[in-house]
Structure formats: structure tokens, C-alpha cells
Task: structure prediction
Amino acid sequence: MKARPALEPAPTAIVSNGLFEYGRFGGFFGRANMLDAARVFNYPLPRFVKNWRLKEWQAFQLGNERWFVFTALYDVKLFSLAYVQIYDRREKRRYGFERIIPGSAFTFPEELNDSRVAYRGSGTFLEYTANAERGEMKIELGRNNFDRARRFSACFRFSSDPKFSAPQSVCLPLGMNRSIYSTKLLMPVEGELSIGGETHLFEADSAMGVFDDHKGYYPWRLRYDWVSGFGLDAKGRRIGFNLTDNQVRDQARYNENCLWINNRIWPLPPVKVTRPQGPVGEWIIQDMEGMVDLIFVPEVPNDITLKLGIFQSDYHGPFGSFRGLIKNGEGEKINADLLYGAGEQQYLRA
Result:
């Protein structure tokens, strides 16, 4: 097992003098000022063109022993997506909504202080607020345009205080002065979920979630594999991981793979995802350094297919459980059998 360098403090801005500050860092960026990059795609493009090519989203996964919740606000400029999926692992029931909106529907902030991104539609809503300085994030969501058994509402509160969490922020090269930015962190969660006429409490000692703030100058054809899971281990510690194989250059040096244990974070090496039986079968996730050896077992299919002329989205994002091991930077083997999460196989032409 090769020792990986510790995360350096995040810079105050992603772009400085027109160039990206590539690297993987601890903490939050001051500004994710992607539009300040010069000569994106090797051309001095006007700001509105750069904005049109910038794909952006914020997403939360969260849950406890019974519930798994996945939400996202996603903007590829040609269309936007508001997405909520709630899965009752005990009763094997699923609730949620997805709304595809023509054009660019959301304005994502450069800073995660006093930020707000929201969707409100006919009988459905999803809202994110964040204040990194105060260590607070919140989700509010609901659906009230169905019968009582299918209605739901929820409010979840996350603590990003350093006593409980450790953010990883990355700026990763795609070539031609293009980059992916992402901040991710595992946090304790508390809140209430009202569904089917019943209210379920989420308590911080047993519930947790992962936040993802993401922007990228992706190529015309976007492809990536991603898996993420979290849960309590046998020692009662919050465990979470993020593993991605995407179009980033030099992934041995630049990737966003990491392992969280409570408020500590360890960088992980590049991984590859193989699916001998396709996205409905088991996914094998491994690295070349003996730190990641996982199998993701899909339980709930979660597919979105969209075709608009030459534009296309082919997305497989099942929920499921894990088997196998991950090692932290000190050589401790973390058993993934108690973790739950999601995987994504994404192809987007836009």
C-alpha cells in the first residue's frame, strides 16, 4: 500500500489569473469561480458561452438503518432536473418524483455561505440551503399532489462542523483549460420524514448523509462511473466513501476518491468499475494498490433515459448494498458489509 499525501488547505478560489488551481484539498473553496477561467476549450469564449457549457449540480444522499434518500438539483443548460427518491429498505417501498425542466432552471452559487438553490413545481418542491461558516446545511422537500399514502414531506439538517465532518474539495483537469470542481463531505443528519401519514425521526447518532457540490466543463460526450456508500460500522463510527472513474487526466495524481471515518478523511487511489452482467448485476470496484476491493449489489433500479434529437442522456443509478473491504491510510481494513448507498453509470451527450 502506497502512502498518499495529506490534503492541503483549499485555496480561496478555484481560478486565479484565469487558470485553475488543480489538486485535491481539505476544507471548502472560498469561491468556485469556474466562469473566470480563461481560454476554456482553448478559446477566449465570452462568459455566457462558458456558462452554457458548464454542467452543475448539487446532490445529497442520506439515510439510517431503515431509510435511504437521494436528492439532486441538476442543470446541464439544455435541460434541468429536480430529483427525489426515498426508499424504505424494510418495507421495500419507494417514493419520490423527478421533474425534467427545459433550459437552465437553477442558479448555483460560487460560495457555500448563505446559499440557496430551490425547485418548486405543481405539488412538489426541493430546496437546499447551506452556510459553511456556521457548519449548517438543510434540505426541505415534499410531494402533496397524490393520495395520502403517497404524499411525503421532510426536513433534514446536517452539521458540517469540523468536530463532525471533513470536506474534500477537488479541482481536476480535463484538458484545454477545463476542469471538474467538487466538494463532498460526510455529515451527521437529524430531521423528520412524514410519509404515508406517519412521521419518522432521523437522529444524528445513527443517521448521516453525503453532500456533493459539483461543476464541470465536461466534453460533449460525458461518461463516468461512480459509487458511494455510508453507514455505521461495528464500532459505531460513521463510515463513508466516494469512488469515481471519469474523464479526468492523470487520475493517479488527480481524483476525488476518499474514505471518511467520523471527522477524518483519507485519499484513495484510482479505481475501475466493471459490470460483467450490466448495471443490474453486481458491480466490481477495485484499485491497483490493494486499498479498494468492493462489490456493489444493486437492489433498486433507478434509470433515466432522455433523447432530444442529437442530445441524449442514458443514466443508471441503482441503490444497493456492498461487500468487501476498504483500507484507510493507516492500513486499517474497513468492512463495507454494513454500508448502503448508490452507484451511477452515466452517459450524456449535450
